[in-house]
Amino acid sequence: MSEKLEKLVEELSTLSVLEAADLVKKLEEKWGVSAAAPVAMAAMAGPAAAAEPVEEKTEFDVVIKDAGAKKIDVIKVIRQLTSLGLGEAKTMAETAGGKVLSAVGKDAAMDAKKKLEEAGASVVVE
Questions:
Q1: What is the DSSP-derived secondary structure letter of residue 27?
Q2: I need a labelling partner for 124 at 20 to 30 A (CA). Which of 9, 10, 49, 107 fits?
Q3: Strand order from edge to edge, sheet including 122-125
Q4: In the chain, where does DSSP find H-type helix?
Q5: For the segment 42-69, what is each residue's pLDDT rounded down to a tens digit?
Q6: Secondary structure (3-state) at 97
Q7: DSSP state of 46
Q8: CA nearest to 92, candidates 44, 83, 108
Q9: How confident is the model at residue 81 (pLDDT cuts 50, 70, 90)?
Q10: Contact status, residue 63 vs residue 124, Cβ threshold 8 Å
Q11: DSSP state letter for 56
């Protein structure tokens, strides 16, 4: 960098944030440009998902993958967690991919997962 540019950089480093923002406005007016244009182009070039804020998931599904060896214990837990009868709970325990709970909060989903896993089932929270 030339000595002239180095001095300019040093001087600009002493500006407060408000002074720097004012400088940007004055340079934009003087030169008829916008400092925001390159930033907008860079944002558009990036992945679309990065441009939008990611919403935190608030509803979860508890899905049974496998009842395991203790199917009777898993059926009991399914009945505790839901209002299903014995036949429906047995069918759910035997069906891989069956949703035990749907659209519940994170705490409820994690609690249900813990209970089902303690009973011997293989469970995922989606």
A1: H
A2: 49
A3: 98-104, 60-66, 122-125
A4: 3-13, 17-31, 36-45, 48-51, 71-81, 86-94, 106-118
A5: 555 555 555 556 677 778 888 888 888 8
A6: coil
A7: S
A8: 83
A9: confident
A10: yes
A11: P
Which position has the token pair 């837990």? Answer: 77
Q: What's the token pair of residue 12?
A: 């600009």
The 10s digit of each residue's pLDDT in 64-80 is 888 888 888 888 888 88
24 close to 36: Cβ distance less than 8 angstroms: no
Closest CA to 113 of 51, 14, 99: 99
10 Å CB burial of residue 69 (0-12, 13-18, 19+) is: exposed
Per-domain residue ranges for the chain? 3-51, 60-125
Check if the beta carbon of residue 59 is closer than 8 Å to that of residue 105: yes
pLDDT at 92 over 70: yes
Both structure tokens of 107: 């705490």
Identify the CATH class of 60-125: alpha beta
